[in-house]
Amino acid sequence: MAANSSSPADSSSSPRPHTYTIGYAMLPNKHDTFIQPSFLDLAARHGVRLEAVDASRPLAEQGPFDLIVHKLHGQAWRAQLEAFSALHPDVPVVDPPAAIERILDRFTMLDVVAGLGVATEGAVATPRQVFVADAAALACDDADAALGGLRFPLIAKPVEVDGSAASHDLCLVYRREGLRGLRAPVVLQEFVNHGGVLFKVYVVGDHATCVMRSSLPDVADARLHDLAADAAAPFANISLLPPPAAGDVEMPPQDFVNRVARELRRALGLHLINFDLIRASDPDGDAKYLILDINYCPGYSKMPGFEPVVLEFLLEMLRNRPGHEQPCPGAGSGTGLSAEALKAEVEPSFIPS
C-alpha cells in the first residue's frame, strides 16, 4: 500500500536535491532487469541519483560517484575499476572484480559450497559434475572415462558465465549418444529429480528472498532407455512457465535460507548474488537441498519488492564508507529509513515470480 498520512515516508513524496550519485555499469540487455523506473523514482525521493557509466570512457572522466555498482567483466573493465579505486579508495565498488571472477566459471563456482557450515552438517550440497575440455573425449567409445562415473541424465552447461546468449545454451542429455555434438569446454552435471520446482534465492547484503520457480520435470528411468526418443534436448525457456501452485510446494524454511545465503555471500566476498536451490529426496525420504548455480548481480526486477531492499542496501554501503560523515537531519538523504519504511512508498504492482 502507499504510505498514509501518518507515515514518515510522506515527507519524501517528491524528489529531493540529490545527496549521493551512484554510478552503474551493466550490459544493455541487463539494464532493465535492475534499473527500473520504480527503483529510480524511490531512489530520487531519498536523495540518490543513479547515473549510467560509459565503460568505453575512463571512469576518472565521469562522475563524481559516491558508489559504483556493476555487472561487467573483462580485463579492460577490471583495469578501469582498479585505477579508479586507487584514485578514490573511499568510493565503494560493488563488488570487487576479483571476487566476481570466482563465479564466472560454472565448474569452479560451486567449490565454495563444500566449506559452508550448512554443507558440513549435511543440510546442503551440490550435484556431482565433471569438466570436459575436449569434445572428442565425449564422441569416442570410451566416453565413460570422461564422465568420471556420473550417471544419466546429465545437464550440459557452457563453462563461462558472461551474460551472452551462448552462456545460457544448456541441454539435458539422457544417454551416451546425446554427448556427441556437445561443444567443449563443457560442464556435465548430474540431473537430480526435484519435482519440477526450483527455489531462486535473491541475496542483497544481509537480506535473502526465496522465490519459487518452475523447473525441468522429473525424468523417469524409462526415458533414459527409450531409443526412439531424442538422446539430448535443449532447455526450453522454463522461466516463462507459470510457477507451481503455492499450496502444492513446501518452501524452504526462511531461517535455513537466511543461513545459506549469509554463509555463501561471506565465503564469496560478494554482496549481490542469487543462487538456484532444489530439494531432492534421498532413498530414506529425507529432504536434501542442492545448490545448482550462483549468479552475480541478478535481475532483481524479478524479486518481489526489490526496490526498497536494494535501495536500503546501497544507502547502508554509503553510510559505511571510510571517513564518511552522516548528513545532518533533514539534509535530504533519507538514509535513516529502513527497508520496511521505504517499502511503504512503493506502489503495489504485479511482479512475476
TrEMBL record:
<keyword id="KW-0479">Metal-binding</keyword>
<dbReference type="InterPro" id="IPR040464">
    <property type="entry name" value="InsP(3)kin_ATP-grasp"/>
</dbReference>
<dbReference type="GO" id="GO:0005737">
    <property type="term" value="C:cytoplasm"/>
</dbReference>
<feature type="binding site">
    <location>
        <position position="215"/>
    </location>
    <ligand>
        <name>ATP</name>
    </ligand>
</feature>
<dbReference type="Pfam" id="PF17927">
    <property type="entry name" value="Ins134_P3_kin_N"/>
</dbReference>
<feature type="binding site">
    <location>
        <position position="71"/>
    </location>
    <ligand>
        <name>1D-myo-inositol 1,3,4-trisphosphate</name>
    </ligand>
</feature>
<keyword id="KW-0547">Nucleotide-binding</keyword>
<keyword id="KW-0418">Kinase</keyword>
<feature type="binding site">
    <location>
        <position position="157"/>
    </location>
    <ligand>
        <name>ATP</name>
    </ligand>
</feature>
<feature type="binding site">
    <location>
        <position position="299"/>
    </location>
    <ligand>
        <name>1D-myo-inositol 1,3,4-trisphosphate</name>
    </ligand>
</feature>
<feature type="binding site">
    <location>
        <position position="295"/>
    </location>
    <ligand>
        <name>1D-myo-inositol 1,3,4-trisphosphate</name>
    </ligand>
</feature>
<feature type="binding site">
    <location>
        <position position="293"/>
    </location>
    <ligand>
        <name>Mg(2+) 2</name>
    </ligand>
</feature>
<feature type="binding site">
    <location>
        <position position="295"/>
    </location>
    <ligand>
        <name>Mg(2+) 2</name>
    </ligand>
</feature>
<keyword id="KW-0808">Transferase</keyword>
<feature type="binding site">
    <location>
        <position position="200"/>
    </location>
    <ligand>
        <name>1D-myo-inositol 1,3,4-trisphosphate</name>
    </ligand>
</feature>
<keyword id="KW-0067">ATP-binding</keyword>
<dbReference type="InterPro" id="IPR041429">
    <property type="entry name" value="ITPK1_N"/>
</dbReference>
<feature type="binding site">
    <location>
        <begin position="189"/>
        <end position="200"/>
    </location>
    <ligand>
        <name>ATP</name>
    </ligand>
</feature>
<keyword id="KW-0460">Magnesium</keyword>
<feature type="binding site">
    <location>
        <position position="168"/>
    </location>
    <ligand>
        <name>1D-myo-inositol 1,3,4-trisphosphate</name>
    </ligand>
</feature>
<dbReference type="GO" id="GO:0052726">
    <property type="term" value="F:inositol-1,3,4-trisphosphate 5-kinase activity"/>
</dbReference>
<feature type="binding site">
    <location>
        <position position="276"/>
    </location>
    <ligand>
        <name>Mg(2+) 1</name>
    </ligand>
</feature>
<dbReference type="InterPro" id="IPR008656">
    <property type="entry name" value="Inositol_tetrakis-P_1-kinase"/>
</dbReference>
<dbReference type="GO" id="GO:0047325">
    <property type="term" value="F:inositol-3,4,5,6-tetrakisphosphate 1-kinase activity"/>
</dbReference>
<dbReference type="GO" id="GO:0032957">
    <property type="term" value="P:inositol trisphosphate metabolic process"/>
</dbReference>
<comment type="function">
    <text>Kinase that can phosphorylate various inositol polyphosphate such as Ins(3,4,5,6)P4 or Ins(1,3,4)P3.</text>
</comment>
<dbReference type="Pfam" id="PF05770">
    <property type="entry name" value="Ins134_P3_kin"/>
</dbReference>
<comment type="subunit">
    <text>Monomer.</text>
</comment>
<dbReference type="GO" id="GO:0000287">
    <property type="term" value="F:magnesium ion binding"/>
</dbReference>
<dbReference type="GO" id="GO:0052725">
    <property type="term" value="F:inositol-1,3,4-trisphosphate 6-kinase activity"/>
</dbReference>
<protein>
    <recommendedName>
        <fullName>Inositol-tetrakisphosphate 1-kinase</fullName>
        <ecNumber>2.7.1.134</ecNumber>
    </recommendedName>
</protein>
<comment type="similarity">
    <text>Belongs to the ITPK1 family.</text>
</comment>
<feature type="domain" description="ATP-grasp">
    <location>
        <begin position="116"/>
        <end position="323"/>
    </location>
</feature>
<feature type="binding site">
    <location>
        <position position="30"/>
    </location>
    <ligand>
        <name>1D-myo-inositol 1,3,4-trisphosphate</name>
    </ligand>
</feature>
<dbReference type="GO" id="GO:0005524">
    <property type="term" value="F:ATP binding"/>
</dbReference>
<dbReference type="InterPro" id="IPR011761">
    <property type="entry name" value="ATP-grasp"/>
</dbReference>
<feature type="binding site">
    <location>
        <position position="106"/>
    </location>
    <ligand>
        <name>ATP</name>
    </ligand>
</feature>
<feature type="binding site">
    <location>
        <position position="293"/>
    </location>
    <ligand>
        <name>Mg(2+) 1</name>
    </ligand>
</feature>
